[in-house]
Amino acid sequence: MALTADTILGALAALTDPSGRRLAEAGRLGEVVIAGDTVMLALTIEASEAAAFEPTRQAVERAIRAVPGVSKAFVTLTAERSASGAGAPQAKAPAPHAAPVPGIARIVAVASGKGGVGKSTTAANLAIALARRGRSAGLLDADIYGPSVPKLMGVKGRPELLPGRMLKPLEAHGLKIMSIGLMVDDETPLIWRGPMIDSALTQMLREVAWGHLDVLVVDMPPGTGDAQLTMAQKVPLDGAVIVSTPQDLALIDARKGIAMFQKVNVPVLGIVENMSFFVCPTCGFRCNIFSHGGARAEAGRHGTAFLGEIPLHMHIRASADAGAPSVASDPDGAHAQAYFEIADRVWAALADPAGQSPPKRRAVPI
After folding, report:
1. What average pLDDT does range 215-239 have in this prediction?
2. Is-above-0.85 flag for pTM?
3. Binning pLDDT at 50, 70 and 90, where does residue 186 land?
4. 3-state secondary structure the chain
């Protein structure tokens, strides 16, 4: 029998909150999300209630796992944001002492203002390049609605659940990898609202056994919505890399991405111009299909670094589709060298105030 939300809610009918009220009657149960044999649920609380609700959260998770057909259950505590006035909630800057993720020294977001500009391919190649430069690196796919990392990295299978409710990341090309795409079927649509996006990203970041990482590269979803705000407000991001084509239409949206990160006090490390030019493999003629130089000009306009150009080439596309991005499949090739140069500039941008390259490992509590 297929799992349904009613089945899950029925299993929780007798559970109560710390005050003794049934969860459903108290309005504590959020939307039930079912993806295959995985069930996700957020309990709505006030921020001050988090400690008191932890035993309740655990009880809800146990009850869901006891339902026939459920193999994994993820229950989180979500504090509702209140809007001021009639408009939508306004973005706030992250807390100055945002809790670090144990074991992870630096976190870099790779973002774009719109889809289709090659952000995920850039994120994958950047992460592999950092790993091949000797850094211990990870790749987190935060693109909830369109996870591409499993395909890009050639990984499949569900993450193993370790003791302590921690997920074991998959590994490929020298990276530790986590994606929502590893936990749901390929054709399962995720129709999630803000609180569920918040919960899923928090779990994939903080409930994964990353170990010690010099850098975690986060493939962000396109745009400037809930996922970006969750990462910026709850995670101590060390910086963001913006990916755009040189086309004016793409640059309009790239500007919005830059402005969003600036508003939440996340440093923009620089801009990458993807699909920068095309060179005919037969005659060698260079064609600027999407124009050229727009991202460099945009970087200058915003006073941020221009990180480099990536050409439009069949090998980049084909290697990504094959699960072995260019830096992994042809590390000595010209395309890989372009990604290595970008990775070196990103790493240099993470330098300390004295201008020194960051140490290979930074002491981080675990």
Report:
1. 80
2. no
3. low
4. CCCCHHHHHHHCCCCECCCCCECCCCCCECCCEEECCEEEEEEEECHHHHHHHHHHHHHHHHHHHCCCCCCEEEEEEEECCCCCCCCCCCCCCCCCCCCCCCCECCEEEEECCCCCCCHHHHHHHHHHHHHHCCCCEEEEECCCCCCCHHHHHCCCCCCEEECCCEEECEEECCEEEEEHHHCCCCCCCCCCCHHHHHHHHHHHHHCECCCCECEEEEECCCCCCHHHHHHHHHCCCCEEEEEECCCHHHHHHHHHHHHHHHHCCCCEEEEEECCCCEECCCCCCEECECECCHHHHHHHHHCCCEEEECCCCHHHHHHHHCCCCHHHHCCCCHHHHHHHHHHHHHHHHCCCCCCCCCCCCCCCCC
